[in-house]
Amino acid sequence: MARLPRLALANLPHHIIQRGNNGTEIFVDAQDRQTMLDLLREMSRRFAVDVHAYVLMPNHFHLLVTPKMADGLPQFMQAVGRSYVRYFNNRHGRSGTMWEGRYRCTVLQAETWLIPTMVSMDLNPVRAGLVARASDWVWSSYAHNAGLKNDVLISPHARFWVMGNTPFARDAAYVAAVEAGVGRDEQEQISHAALRGWALGDPLFIENLQQKTERRVTRGRAGRPPKAVQKQA
To answer: Region 36-47: what's the mean pLDDT?
Structure first.
């Protein structure tokens, strides 16, 4: 069965996961991680992609982004991936690929899933047993969204702004959201959607999204595809 093309739609948030090949580490030290952040900042500006959140794990990374043009997202990821591999191989005396195939990506409904996805990302190091609290992991956007520092890479999404009427209120609301965490069912939906490439949102969001692309956006029944993706005669 052929792989589905990735969803990439302008002006909608996308959750991205990129893993190292065979689970190997893609960041050896702070210099590697800072290089990745520098590349993300450079390429996000070049390809008009807003970065709302990120977390760099030892063998993979997560991004929450909104491309302003549909083709901006694949161009952004390709430029970041190629540039980082070239840097990493030169610095560490290795050759070949370092990615586990193509990156995983899903489109999500901002009103219901943007904040839970951000929270899930910030808690990734905690779930992995690397730190006790999200604030202890410096290689994520948590500090920016919690009001602890300014991160020039981050462009807050409109959904984040409505968490409070003032910066202090927004920061406090986000800290509270991270402390509350996400439920097991929510976490499974977030992870499953990103890894499988299915859109994440309520039925109306999914229905409207399907009208924008011929690519099926949710898992369908075996057999005929939904009408929204059938070719016109």
So the answer is: 98
Question: Are 12 and 107 spatial neighbours (Cβ–Cβ below 8 Å)?
Answer: yes
* Alpha carbons 121 and 56: distance in angstroms, whole number: 9
Mean pLDDT in residue range 172-189 = 96
226 CA to centre of own chain: 27
Judge whether 163 and 153 are in contact, CB under 8 Å.
no
Residue 71, CA distances (Å) to 3, 8, 65, 147 in order: 19, 7, 13, 32
Position 92, amino acid: H
Burial class from Cβ neighbours inside 10 Å (0-12, 13-18, 19+) for residue 12 reads buried
Give residue-wise pLDDT tens across range 42-87. Answer: 999 999 999 999 999 999 999 999 999 989 999 999 999 999 999 9
Q: What is the pLDDT of residues 111-161, one digit of tens each?
A: 999 999 999 999 999 999 999 999 999 999 999 999 999 999 999 999 999
Tokens at 12, concatenated: 């909608």
DSSP helix/strand/coil, 79: helix
Other residues' Cβ atoms within 10 Å of the Cβ of residue 75: 17
Is residue 99 within 8 Å of 59, Cβ to Cβ? no
Does an H or E element contain 104, and which? strand 104-107
pTM (predicted TM-score)? 0.90
